[in-house]
Amino acid sequence: MGNQCAVVWSDALLGYKLGDDHPLHPIRLDLTMRLARSLGVLDDVDLIPPQIASDEDLERVHSQEYLTAVRAAPMSAWDVGHGLGTPDNPIFDEMHDAAALIAGGSLAAARAIVEGRTARAINIAGGLHHAMRDNAAGFCVYNDCSVAIAWMLEQGVERVAYVDVDVHHGDGVQAAFYDDPRVLTVSMHQHPITLWPGTGHPTELGARGAEGTAVNVPVPPGTSDAGWLRAFHAVVPSVLAEFRPQVLVTQCGADAHREDPLADLGLSVDGQRETYRALREFADTYSGGKWLALGGGGYQLFRVVPRAWTHLLATVLDRDLDPATRIPTDWMAHALGVAGNTPLPTTMTDDVDPSFTEWAGVADSPVDTAIRDCRHAVFPLHGLDPADRRD
Q1: Of 96, 129, 130, 168, which residue is the catalytic one?
Q2: Domains of the chain: residue spans and CATH
Q3: Is 130 annotated as catalytic?
Q4: What are the pLDDT digits (tens) for 142-185?
C-alpha cells in the first residue's frame, strides 16, 4: 500500500484568509503545523504540496456560473450574489485560487489513496463543508470535501462514507450527495434548533432511491465528552458496518470544544482525541484502512485548534501523543507573540477523562433522546433494529 499516510501541506494554504478579524483565520493552521513539527509528529514525513483544482474538478460539485462569480468577485464593483460579500463570506483578493488550492489539497489526498500510494491521507486545511453548488456559505467558498468525494466516485470507487464531527451540520456535503446511494453522509453536530445552519434533523434521511444514506445525530447544547462519545458509538459504527464503504472520509472540525466561541458544546481536547482514535479504528474495521481526514471549523485559534489537530495528525500517522505531553517552549514562545492576551495551555490535555458509558437503550437524558430519535429514523432503512444495543 506504500507509505502509511500522506500529509498535504504548503504554506500557500495560508492564503485562504477571509480577513484579519474573521473567525476562520489561517493562524490556526500555521500554529498546528508548528506544534506538530515541534513535537516530532511530522519527523521524516514528506509533505505533498497541493495544486489548484481545475475547473473540471470543481464543476463536479459547483456550477460554472458560480466559478465565474468567484473569479470576478474581487474585481467587481457590483453585488455578485452567490453568498459572496457577506460578513461570513467576505470577498478577498485571489479568492478563487486560494479556495481552489484547498480543494486541490483534498484532491491530492484522495488521489494518493485511490492510486494505492497510501492507505491514509490528511489535509488539515480542508473540511470546508458548507459551500453549496451555487453559493458560498459558512466561511466556505468551495466544498473540498464534496469535490474529493465526487472525484473518487468518478474513478470507480463504489461506496464512500463521510463522517462529520464538526459542531455544525455538514449540510453542503449532505446536499451534494442527498440523492446518491453511493455516498453515506453521517453528521454529529449541535442540535439545529440551537445553531446555524439549522439543518441536520434525524428526519433528513436522503432522497428517494437513497433513503438512509443521510444520517444525522444532533446533540443538545452543553453535551460533554461522555454524551458525545456515547451518541457517536451508538450510531456511527452500526451504519458504517452495514454500508461497507471502500473509503472513509472524515471532517474533523475542532469547534465542538467547550471553549469554542461560535458554539455551545462541551468537549475537551481529550474527547476530541478519542473521537479521532475511534475514526481510525472505524477506517481499519470498515473501509479496509482507507481514510481521508480533513480539517474544518475551530475558532479558539490558540488554545484549542493547534492541540486538537496535532492530535489528529498524530492519530492518522500512528504517532499517538500522550495527552500529558508538555508543549515545547519554542512553540510557546512563537504563539505568545501572536496570541495577544490569550493564556496558552502548557500540555496536550485538558485534564479530562473522556470515558463514557454505552447507550443503554433508554431515553432518560437529552443525549439519549437524540440517540433514540436518530436510530429509530435511520436504522430500519439499513435493516438494523433501532432497539438492539448489539448493532
Answers
A1: 130
A2: 3-382 (3.40.800.20)
A3: yes
A4: 999 999 999 999 999 999 999 999 999 999 999 999 999 999 99
